[in-house]
């Protein structure tokens, strides 16, 4: 499990280094996650080509362990919120309004996208 966790963290580190080195407008861990996905897909493809069984190398076990304790990762965010309570108090109404507006806009975008895709699928079925 230690090697698998190291692989996950190494992918995150590589993603962070690439993002900072190339000044990409993307979070480093996201690029690291994409790299990990590519590595896992390549591993599966090579195992299929060799017609060998897919061995569980522990990445799944390590990720399940991380997911089981995911709530611990929210502790630093909670501490940050508590440290900035004065800022939240002074700008609380604006924050609530922005959050509400973003939820409404997200819902509208989702509905419009769904309706557009639904129409396109109906047109495709009519052909």
TrEMBL record:
Q: Give any Pfam family that matches.
A: LrgA
Subcellular localization: Cell membrane
UniProt keywords, alphabetically: Cell membrane, Membrane, Transmembrane, Transmembrane helix
The way this protein sits in the membrane is described as:
Multi-pass membrane protein
Query: What sections of the protein cross the membrane?
Result: 27-46, 66-85, 91-117
Which Gene Ontology cellular component annotation is one that this UniProt entry carries? plasma membrane
Q: Which PANTHER family match?
A: HOLIN-LIKE PROTEIN CIDA (PTHR33931:SF2), HOLIN-LIKE PROTEIN CIDA-RELATED (PTHR33931)
Q: Can you say what this protein is called?
A: CidA/LrgA family protein
Species the sequence originates in:
Bradyrhizobium cytisi
Lineage here is: Bacteria, Pseudomonadati, Pseudomonadota, Alphaproteobacteria, Hyphomicrobiales
